[in-house]
Structures are given as C-alpha cells and as structure tokens.
C-alpha cells in the first residue's frame, strides 16, 4: 500500500536520484511557498509540472478530494565553479469547494507519483542547467485530458495566472450538445411559422374558443325564448 509523501521524503527521493544522475555535484532541495511563476533571479531556470495528481484534505470541514490538476513550480540554479546547485519548489494549494473556507489546503501524494515527478524535474534540470539533450519526460495519467471541468476559482495556480487545464474534446462536445438542446425551439412553437410566438391551436386557445361559442349559443337561445 502506498503512503503519502512528506517533505523529507521528497528530499530523500530527489537526493538519491541526483546522486545517481550527477554524482560529482552537490544539490539541495528547498520548499519555498513564496515562489512566483516566471519571476526568476539572474541565472535561475524554471520548470513547471502542470499535471501532477494529489489528494487534498480540508483543515476546516475535513472534506477530502482527489485532483489530477496539481501544479508544482521549480526554480533551479547551478554554480558550475562550486559544483553545487539548488532547487526551490512550490506545490500550489486548493480551496475546499464544500465549505467555502478561505484556507488554502496542501496536498498529499503517493510515493510512486513522486518518483515520476522527480524524474521529470531532473530531466529539465539536465537540459537547462547542464545543456544536455535527449532526456525523456514521464507522462502521467493526470496529464491526459480530463472529462470533468476544473474549478479554477478554487485553484491557487489558476488564480496566479498559470494555465494548466484544457477541457477534453468529449467535454466540449457534451457542453455544445447541452447548449444546442437548451436553445432549440419547441416543436409546438415553430419560430419560422409563428413569428409572434402565439399558437392558436394549443389546448388553452381551443378551450377559450369553445367557451365563446357556447356563450353565443346560450345568448341566442335566451333571446329566442324571450321573444
């Protein structure tokens, strides 16, 4: 059974894989919740994991939810003279849509997911900091187009302008079909034939004309009997 990964375990996986990838260099991983997208100091590089998967737990109402739209931001810097590098990481949070609490909740991940995410980070690091080519990124299940609409108003990454969700073609087709049916004219009221929207053959109108006819007949009979 997979367990949720803590900050120390994030570092453990990263250090082990960097020791294997670049044994001659020393790298450090720092969690920085204030990291900003596209705001880089001179010499720093950026990598954004747009399709991670994580589970969130509301600290207010205890609601939990799974999201395949988790965003992780990395800033990387290599000092070639000192043979030392640093990675700063920020995992974007989400708001609970059940209780509407303003508290941004952190996510937990499975260890098997961290392995792939760190592999992607190291691939980007080797390309941008070492100028190497030929790396291959691991494609996660969460990176596939999702058939559920992402609620960007509850996503910290979306609120900071990071575009990371695209609706699937199936979802777009379903929404287009729903919109078409909702806008379609009623079969009993063809708009091209009844410009004013009045249907004089409807049941209410038939009852109205029948009542008028009966009233006329009644008045005629009453008039004749009086004569």
UniProtKB/TrEMBL annotation:
GO molecular function: olfactory receptor binding; zinc ion binding
Domain of life of the source: Eukaryota
Membrane topology value: Single-pass membrane protein
Entry annotated with the keyword tRNA processing: no
3CxxC-type domain ranges (all copies): 51-161
InterPro entries: R-trans_p (IPR026096), ZAR1/RTP1-5-like_Znf-3CxxC (IPR027377)
Gene Ontology process terms (BP): detection of chemical stimulus involved in sensory perception of bitter taste; protein insertion into membrane; protein targeting to membrane
Residue intervals passing through the bilayer: 202-221
Keywords carried by this UniProt record: Membrane, Metal-binding, Transmembrane, Transmembrane helix, Zinc, Zinc-finger
Cellular compartments per GO CC: cell surface; membrane
Entry's localization field: Membrane
Protein name: Receptor transporter protein 1
SMART domains for this protein: zf-3CxxC (SM01328)
């Amino acid at each position: 059974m997979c367990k949720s990964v803590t900050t120390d375990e994030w570092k453990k996986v990263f250090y082990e894989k960097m020791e294997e990838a670049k044994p001659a260099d020393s790298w450090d991983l720092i969690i920085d919740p204030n990291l900003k997208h596209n705001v880089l100091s001179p010499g720093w590089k950026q990598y954004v994991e747009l399709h991670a998967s994580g589970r969130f737990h509301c600290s207010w109402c205890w609601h939990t939810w799974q999201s395949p739209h988790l965003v992780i931001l990395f800033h990387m810097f290599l000092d070639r003279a000192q043979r030392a590098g640093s990675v700063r990481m920020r995992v974007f949070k989400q708001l609970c849509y059940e209780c509407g609490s303003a508290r941004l909740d952190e996510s937990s991940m499975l260890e098997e997911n961290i392995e792939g995410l760190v592999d992607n980070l190291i691939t980007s690091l080797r390309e941008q900091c070492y100028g190497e080519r030929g790396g291959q990124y691991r494609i996660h299940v969460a990176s596939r187009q999702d058939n559920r609409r992402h609620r960007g108003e509850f996503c910290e990454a979306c609120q900071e302008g990071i575009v990371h969700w695209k609706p699937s073609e199936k979802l777009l087709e379903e929404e287009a079909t729903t919109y078409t049916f909702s806008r379609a004219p009623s079969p009993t009221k063809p708009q091209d034939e009844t410009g004013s929207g009045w249907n004089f053959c409807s049941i209410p109108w038939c009852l109205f004309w029948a009542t008028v006819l009966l009233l006329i007949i009644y008045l005629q009979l009453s008039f004749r009997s009086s004569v």
